[in-house]
Amino acid sequence: MDPFVSLDATAQAELVRSGEVTPLELVDAAIARIERCNPKLNAVVQTQFDTARARAKAPLPQGPFTGVPFLLKDLLAAQEGYPLSFGSRFTKDFSPNHDSELVKRHLRAGLVVLGKTNTPELGLLPTTEGALHGPCRNPWDVTRSPGGSSGGAAAAVASGMVPFAHASDGGGSIRIPASSCGLFGLKPSRGRNPTGPELTDSVHWLVGEHALTRTVRDSATLLDATEGPDLGAPYIAPPKTRPYSMEVGAPPGRLRIGLTLRNAVGAPIHPECLAAVAATARLLEGLGHSVLEGSLQIPGDEELGQHFMTAWAASVVNSIEGLGRRMRRTPEPEHFEPFTWALYQFGLSQGLTAYLHAQAEVLRFGRAFARRFEDVDVWLLPTVTEPAPTLGTFAAPPDEPLAPLFRSAAFTPYCPMANMAGNPAMSVPLHWSPEGLPVGVQFIARFGDEATLFRLAAQLESAHPWTHRRPSVFG
């Protein structure tokens, strides 16, 4: 029996602080869980078990999570001397010569890194089925996707391998797998967590890094440990008024919650996603909040998807060519999956003027989006338009390599707006389908207002607990 698998990171850290267990005991138990579960799920694609055991035996920094096992996403999370493949054959041998600032803060918090998690190539799709590492499977149904691009992180946490794991979100990549795997996933405000020293590319302002967790308090405490600008940060989020861990359990007050089901691409919504939002609205009203239907529609947002994809494709060009320069390697079609190469070619075809226009339109949207919070504290909306899809749903036909782009837009039309505006957003696991598939609901708050989201999430977690729900592979 594993005495730690059901404990969140906060509880595991308390056992270490009290002297009841050692970091090595936690690490060895997590390694055993990875070795047992990972062959079924393919969530962890690179291990650092010897290094982790050595770190666990040595004196660790005294932080909020001293001795707790952790996994990093194989994207953005640079570690000196360790591979960072970005899920691509082009970069499979790339090893950074430094730690990213966020990883440094993870280590200062006392975490023990056990390895890297699966991600699609360059983190581009809302599923995790890359050619380099193969498909990652959803712990709730191994025929289905865990979501993406932080699918490996979600599968690892949902299956109990580790209590939480690093994740990143440029268009929903924390919230999508949180919904698909029954986890709590918060994307912080733009500039809340550091992205240095290297992430300053053409869509730097879209990307937020944080974690996938089983409990709200783990997410809040980890963000306390990592938030704040790094040296030279181009964006800085408003300072928090007190530790986020103090928001967990604090009364959220009577919130004005806007509810919307409309999406800019007109995608149909699965009945279970509608049921999840409706049940959540009833729960919120029972907790004393005001829930009113409204619209997040911004004039001209019918073209917003095109602007987002123009900016996103430009970032693919920048990423591929930037990595090529660092590795002194010329990108060729055979180095990439067909979808990635087609998106790269599309980005090349757009030109500088198109990119600058798209960026201006996205930033214009952000200003208009802020006005949607003048009479509303938080917006409630679906995270995705359907429960976890089957593996292969986002495959690219040989004659239509960009097809996954349009399928993705229909699956996750609700997530990118928080990236474009920079607002904090979260997916909360409040609903399961009759087939046993988790379905998350999304909340978006004002820019810089993670505190309200943590207070609300903790209230929902108390009123409608979810951590007792576990897939059969758990532990």
Molecular structure report:
With 475 residues, the chain is of the alpha+beta class. It has a single domain, classed as Alpha-Beta Complex (Amidase signature (AS) enzymes), CATH 3.90.1300.10. It is 37% helix and 13% strand. It has 14 helices and 13 strands. The strands form 3 sheets. The protein has an 8-stranded mixed beta sheet with strand order 6-8-7-12-13-11-9-10, sandwiched between helices. Strand 12 and strand 13 form a beta hairpin. Helix 2 runs antiparallel to helix 3, helix 5 runs parallel beside helix 6 and helix 10 crosses helix 11. The longest helix is centred in the last third of the chain and has 33 residues. The chain is globular. It starts with 8 loop residues before the first helix and ends in a 12-residue tail after the last helix. 56% of the residues are buried. The model has no long low-confidence stretch (mean pLDDT 95). This is Amidase. Belongs to the amidase family. One of its GO terms (molecular function) is catalytic activity. Pfam families: Amidase.
Main attributes of the structure:
single chain, 475 residues, alpha+beta, Amidase signature (AS) enzymes, eight-stranded mixed sheet, three-stranded mixed sheet, 14 helices, 37% helix, 13% strand
Distance N terminus to C terminus? 9 Å
Using only C-alpha atoms, the radius of gyration works out to 21 Å
- Taken as a percent bin, the fraction of beta residues is 5-15%
Tally of structural domains: 1
Task: Give the SSE string.
Answer: HHEHEHEEEHEHEEHHEHEHHEHHEEH
User: Can you name the CATH architecture?
Assistant: Alpha-Beta Complex
Share of helix, binned: 25-40%
| CATH class category | Alpha Beta
The number of helical runs is: 14
Mean pLDDT: 95
Strand order of the largest sheet: 6-8-7-12-13-11-9-10
Fourth-tier CATH superfamily name: Amidase signature (AS) domain
Overall geometric form: globular
Question: Could you please say which CATH topology applies here?
Answer: Amidase signature (AS) enzymes
